[in-house]
Inverse folding.
């Protein structure tokens, strides 16, 4: 803990960093509110379900525990990564916020109903704030870990950790019939684009992420 406190000391005395960190939290909060609104809108406009080449040919599995608590573990990992290295915080938070806002746009455009044999997820009020169950396209469970893999691409352990987690979550949501296969497959391609948008929009934060305070 002393070493972490030592890492934070220069950042807490840097006005530019504090401003950027504060904006990243506001951006993240705004994205959560937008995401909540998109979920309500998608639920209100939901239409009919469609067939799926994977879901129509595999049984449904009870994976609601992993679906709910897996992301909570992921959030804990993200918090630790930001807390242990303060230089990471602004770029990670802003990239995640950008991801959520762009995904909310896609959710608002597509209103396909969930697959009829999907498992019933007993989500808590906290989880319900992040997903309505009708916000299908594209899969956040798959996309967020992949975004983190791209962010940590130069750190081998975290790169492979997040890639494996992304694939694992993708399999889980398909096993539970919680997402269509297109939701999972497209998440990798859209997330790759979001990462490059973040690199362009948040150049200073990316530089801080890579090199720290100069």
């Amino acid at each position: 803990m002393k070493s972490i406190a030592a890492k934070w000391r220069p950042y807490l005395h840097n006005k530019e960093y504090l401003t950027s960190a504060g904006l990243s939290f506001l951006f993240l909060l705004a994205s959560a509110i937008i995401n909540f609104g998109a979920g309500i809108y998608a639920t209100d406009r939901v239409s009919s379900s469609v067939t799926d080449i994977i879901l129509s040919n595999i049984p449904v599995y009870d994976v609601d525990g992993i679906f709910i608590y897996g992301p909570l573990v992921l959030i804990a990992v993200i918090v630790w990564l930001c807390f242990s290295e303060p230089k990471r915080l602004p770029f990670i938070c802003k990239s995640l916020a950008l991801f959520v806002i762009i995904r909310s746009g896609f959710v608002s455009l597509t209103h396909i109903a969930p697959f009829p044999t999907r498992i019933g997820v007993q989500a808590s009020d906290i989880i319900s704030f992040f997903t309505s169950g009708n916000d299908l396209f594209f899969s956040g469970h798959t996309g967020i870990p992949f975004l983190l893999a791209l962010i940590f691409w130069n750190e081998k352990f975290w790169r492979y950790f997040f890639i494996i987690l992304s694939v694992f979550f993708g399999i889980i949501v398909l096993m539970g019939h919680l997402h269509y296969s297109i939701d999972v497959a497209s998440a990798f391609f859209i997330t790759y684009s979001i990462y490059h948008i973040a690199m362009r929009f948040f150049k200073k934060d990316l530089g801080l992420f890579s090199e720290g305070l100069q």
